[in-house]
Amino acid sequence: MKLDHVLTVSIGKVLYLDGTVVYKVFDESYSKADVLNEALNHARVEETGLNIPKIHEVGKVDNKWFIAMDYIPGKTLAQLMEEFPEKKQEYIDLLVELQLEIVSKKSPLLKKLKDKMNTKISQTTLDATTRYELHTRLEGMPKHNKVCHGDLNPTNVVIREDGTPFIIDWAHATQGNAAADAARTYLTFCLAGDKDSAEYYMKVFCKKSDTALQYVQKWLPIVAASQSVKGNEEERALLLKWADVVDYE
Q1: Of 18, 22, 38, 80, which is least packed with CB atoms within 10 Å of its CB?
Q2: DSSP secondary structure letters along 215-241
Q3: Which of 150, 115, 143, 118 is nearest to 131 (CA)?
Q4: Which DSSP symbol is given to 116?
Q5: Do the Cβ atoms of 53 and 168 come closer than 8 Å?
Q6: What is the pLDDT averaged over residues 227-231?
Q7: Cβ atoms of 98 and 171 closer than 8 Å
Q8: Where are the beta strands (DSSP E) in the chain?
């Protein structure tokens, strides 16, 4: 194992490339349980047959936990959108197609999305009345058991050199409602300040999945509240505004 070729650096983790293997090394802010849970989620999604990197090993180096997996050479959808802005809608169409493939799968041992969101809502800084409203709304939503990525956005899709798309970063995978996963993707575009892409994404998702726009919109405050527990202050403030809306306008 050689950790001298840095691929990317993000909060709490560094990705190194050694030959055809990527080593995702976590800092001390990640507990053993966090890392093992991410690896377990990833391994369970592998079993669905989706195009995702295969895990080779979980271990420790320099007293830090790592997950070793296949390296997928290529560019992310985010990179392609920057390089070819005229094809942006085409890339969003592909993102939706991949999302529909994901939610067509089942993985019965993944954590339930509703359980995770209920926990997150309880951890927010929202007042008790708003939390009660969000918990009630969440409990009233249909119970599904579809595989949900939890953070599907253009940075988490890599297009291999032969054109094959691979989906990465399964740390937040759960089983639940596809519309909740769509609400999360919509909010990701909004947080990036790209409202036009957010609206286009929402339109395409609803059309291709034959889902009512109002149904996805009902998930927005719930998803925003659950996401507000993490992230930077600016994102948190914006998400809490979304979460504080009882009926999305």
Answers
A1: 18
A2: HHHHHHHHHHHHHTTSS-HHHHHHHHH
A3: 118
A4: H
A5: yes
A6: 84
A7: no
A8: 6-10, 13-18, 21-26, 55-61, 64-70, 74-76, 146-148, 157-160, 165-167, 174-176
